[in-house]
Amino acid sequence: MHELRTGLWHWQAPHPQWTPDARWPQEVSSYAIDDGARLLLFDPLAVPDALLALAREREPVIVLTAPWHERDAQALVEQFDAAVFAPPPDTAQDLIDKYGITAEQAGDGSPDLEWLRSGGGNAQWYAAGDRLPIGIEAYEGREHNDLVLWIESVRAVVAGDSLADFGTGFALNERLRGGVTREHVVEGLRPLLALPVEVVLPAHGAPTDRAALERALSS
User: How far is Cα 25 from Cα 206, in angstroms, rounded to an integer?
Assistant: First the structure.
């Protein structure tokens, strides 16, 4: 665990669902922000003991950048009764549009966060354009539920899979579903460059800076 600045931490852990043929490295990143009252945990996995101890002194809140980044969210909810802010999982139609599968294959939609949807925690669903009551503004990335977050209090951007380093440098994720272009994604994220961004915190890769964000969103 590394404290990037006072009250902002980064750590990495091996993802339990990783396989050698995965297109992303085994180590994934999580972050925490202490605002004095709440401890915000972003895409948390294997939270360090020091932060678990701090969570007992704060109001812990879990923030997911994408529903498939639930990682250790359920275990943390069971331990701390923490609220979970998350984008909604894919519906059956989302899966059909994204993967070109049949309605039968899509079934009832993605199983992501089924435990939360079934009443297993305090779910706070959010979407692009929302301003969350915990000091976060959400921007749409390459998917309607793969979001990029702006946290003004620490001048940080937190990114899910839309902006990531999959082993070749921090960049826009070019893996897009049909009908979505790179230009469309960049256009939606370009307003971030008008903000006083100082640090960029990707779920895949190490923390980076504003210059890397500018390069990733260049035409």
Answer: 12
